[in-house]
């Protein structure tokens, strides 16, 4: 019992500098009005996505009889579409789909990329060479176009769109993590860890990966924004969401047919894409500035 | 190492990437059921013809042998058939549609460079002034702008609203007014309408083509423009801190010369790289922009191909873009080495 308590205590003590560092990082982030603005905007979107059933006045595919294509009013803040769907509600429900896709894509890509990248960087040699040639091939395409080809081969729906985007996004993470692992591997502390008999797995997870967390965090935040943009773009040209689904890109593509009679149909979902992506970029940029020790203090 | 050796080595390194790319498109086209589909022109095809197709492309052989047949066909210029484009061979479709995309991309890239560089310079020289803040906000929206949406907004304002209020408005879509094209036919030389109409001294067609390209080109350039402005600002600020700028100023050179002659040259280097790398973004953007503006380029062809499950067309387009993209990256690297003698060619 006593030893366990000691262990816990020493663990907390170990983490204290990290905790102070974390508090300092938050303090620095709060100094920048743009980061705070980005954080507030993205929080609003996240809250809207989670609590959509309580916030949205209407259901995502609910049709209001006799109220088709109405311009924005107090009753329908963003107007209604050609089926009498309330755009304001649909934008809120859309946050669920688009944010979820972005999270799923970035989360999976970062996980796959981290595993492959750290193996590649730490092992080096032939394994590294082979894995990097594979990433080369994936990086030889602009993201949207490779995703198009994959989604076309798999079939057009939201799940396949997500899979296609994961396939497109993991190589950049593998590259990032490999770079860090490669430079950390040569450092003295890794040699020291080896000298006292630490196993490879322990070195990778306990010593090398913590160095990766910050660049990973920055990249993931920025990528969430680009995934939202790419997913909506693909949805706009006919991948992903089927007819009637409250997804932002699909809503814009539906609104395009009524651009001159009902411009609000395309305007508001587009604004949601712009704002959510912008907010994530603001936060990501701020994180990068704060977390890069060369740029701070 | 000499420049020539460097270029040769880089070209050599391109080969495994291109092989990998072809493997990827091969896998994808075999993933969707029947690989014969990429070569078949209609549903009502005789069994004999199908056997001929299978024989010609080695589709009865094991999968790894099929890949070599596929590679052989690619090199021979047999990229399959595009069903969405009235059963034309894919290579012919590319020849038809690519000039439109090339023209759009060139104009968009020129717009982003011509506007982005001065905007970046002004922003850097007026650091923390209102102009600078405005530029920074603009640059930030650049990376988050859904350009297909921007395209619709532009259409709504510059076509619909301008027309509604009797102002001179921009055309909604297409490359050229069909009436102008009939009355003043353009001689097809390069396929680039602006260039062709200029060479054949056809002012009516030139005017129409120019009016038609403004909106889609601006829409497509938006992201690159913002990126270039942002990069230019950052690298200009970096360069202006250097000692040689201080010494240029202290010997009494006018500020204009210091900025545009001494600082600009070095500040351009990172900007060129960004512009080259942004080329991939332009190609992706072209798919979206062409869809919005009904621009008859490869991007619109590819979306048509996808909606009609035309695998020949989709994979042909994907291959084409990958080849252009890796070549563009190669050119950027070489340009970079030429521009900056400090980079050792290792």
Task: Give a description of the structure.
The complex is a heterodimer of chains A (297) and B (346). Chain A has helices spanning 2-30, 33-50, 52-55, 87-123, 125-138, 143-154, 158-185, 188-195, 200-236, 248-256, 264-291. Chain A has 297 residues and is mainly α. The longest helix of chain A has 37 residues, at 87-123. Chain A is globular. Chain B contains 13 helices and two strands, in the order H-H-H-E-E-H-H-H-H-H-H-H-H-H-H. In chain B, strands 1-2 form a two-stranded antiparallel sheet. In chain B, helix 5 packs across helix 9. Chain B is globular and about 85 Å long. The N and C termini of chain B lie close together (7 Å). Chains A and B meet through helix 5, helix 6, helix 9, helix 10 and helix 11 of A and helix 1, helix 5, helix 6, helix 11 and helix 12 of B.
Query: Largest contact between protein chains?
Result: A-B, 46 and 48 residues
Pairing-aware structural class of the strands and helices of chain A? mainly alpha
Our estimate of the beta-strand percent of chain B is under 5%
Number of helices of chain A: 11
Strand pairing plus helix content of chain B: what structural class? mainly alpha
Q: Number of helical segments of chain B?
A: 13
Order of helices and strands of chain A: HHHHHHHHHHH
Strand and helix order of chain B: HHHEEHHHHHHHHHH
Give the assembly state of these chains: heterodimer
């Amino acid at each position: 019992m006593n030893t366990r308590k000691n262990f816990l205590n020493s663990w907390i003590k170990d983490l204290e500098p990290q905790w102070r560092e974390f508090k300092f990082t938050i303090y620095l982030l709060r100094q920048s009005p743009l980061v705070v603005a980005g954080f507030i905007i993205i929080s609003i979107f996240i809250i809207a996505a989670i609590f959509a059933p309580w916030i949205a006045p209407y259901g995502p595919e609910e049709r209001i009889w006799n109220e088709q294509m109405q311009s924005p009013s107090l009753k329908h803040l963003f107007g209604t579409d050609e089926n009498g769907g309330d755009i304001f509600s649909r934008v809120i429900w859309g946050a669920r789909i688009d944010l979820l896709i972005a999270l799923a894509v970035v989360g999976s890509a970062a996980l796959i990329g981290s595993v492959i990248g750290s193996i590649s960087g730490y092992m080096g040699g032939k394994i590294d060479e082979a894995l990097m040639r594979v990433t080369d091939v994936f990086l030889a395409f602009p993201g949207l176009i490779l995703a198009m080809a994959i989604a076309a081969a798999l079939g057009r729906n939201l799940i396949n769109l997500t899979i296609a985007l994961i396939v497109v996004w993991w190589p950049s993470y593998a590259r990032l993590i490999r770079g860090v692992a490669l430079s950390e591997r040569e450092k003295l502390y890794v040699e020291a860890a080896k000298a006292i008999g630490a196993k490879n797995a322990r070195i990778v997870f306990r010593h090398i990966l913590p160095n990766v967390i910050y660049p990973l965090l920055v990249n993931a935040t920025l990528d969430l924004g680009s995934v939202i943009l790419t997913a909506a773009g693909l949805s706009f040209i006919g991948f992903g969401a089927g007819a009637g689904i409250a997804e932002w890109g699909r809503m814009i593509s539906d609104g395009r047919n009524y651009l001159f009679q009902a411009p609000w149909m395309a305007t508001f979902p587009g604004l949601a894409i712009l704002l959510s992506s912008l907010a994530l970029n603001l936060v990501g940029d701020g994180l990068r500035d704060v977390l890069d020790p060369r740029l701070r203090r | 190492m000499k420049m020539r050796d460097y270029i040769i080595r880089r070209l050599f390194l391109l080969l495994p990437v291109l092989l990998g790319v072809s493997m990827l498109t091969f896998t994808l086209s075999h993933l969707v059921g029947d690989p014969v589909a990429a070569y078949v022109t209609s549903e009502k095809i005789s069994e004999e013809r199908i056997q001929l197709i299978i024989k010609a492309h080695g589709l009865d052989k094991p999968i790894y042998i099929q890949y070599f047949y596929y590679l052989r066909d690619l090199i021979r210029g047999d990229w399959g058939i595009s069903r969405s484009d009235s059963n034309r061979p894919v290579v012919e479709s590319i020849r038809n549609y690519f000039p439109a995309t090339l023209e759009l991309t060139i104009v968009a890239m020129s717009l982003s460079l011509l506007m982005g560089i001065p905007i970046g310079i002004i922003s850097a020289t007026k650091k923390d002034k209102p102009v600078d803040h405005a530029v920074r906000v603009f640059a930030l929206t650049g990376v988050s702008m859904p350009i297909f949406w921007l395209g619709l907004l532009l259409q709504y304002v510059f076509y619909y609203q301008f027309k509604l209020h009797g102002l001179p408005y921009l055309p909604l879509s297409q490359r050229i007014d069909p009436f102008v094209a009939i009355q003043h036919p353009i001689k097809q030389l390069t396929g680039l309408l602006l260039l062709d109409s200029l060479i054949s001294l056809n002012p009516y067609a030139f005017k129409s083509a120019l009016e038609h390209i403004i909106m889609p080109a601006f829409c497509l350039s938006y992201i690159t423009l913002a990126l270039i402005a942002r990069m230019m600002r950052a690298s200009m600020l970096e360069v202006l801190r250097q000692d040689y700028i201080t010494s240029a100023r202290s010997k009494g050179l006018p500020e204009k010369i210091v900025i545009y002659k001494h600082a600009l040259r070095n500040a351009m280097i990172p900007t060129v790289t960004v512009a080259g790398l942004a080329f991939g973004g332009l190609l992706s953007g072209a798919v979206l922009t062409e869809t919005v503006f009904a621009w008859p380029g490869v991007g619109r062809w590819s979306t048509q191909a996808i909606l009609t499950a035309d695998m020949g067309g989709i994979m042909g387009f994907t291959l084409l873009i990958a080849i252009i993209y890796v070549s563009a990256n190669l050119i950027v690297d070489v340009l970079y080495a030429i521009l900056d003698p400090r980079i050792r060619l290792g």
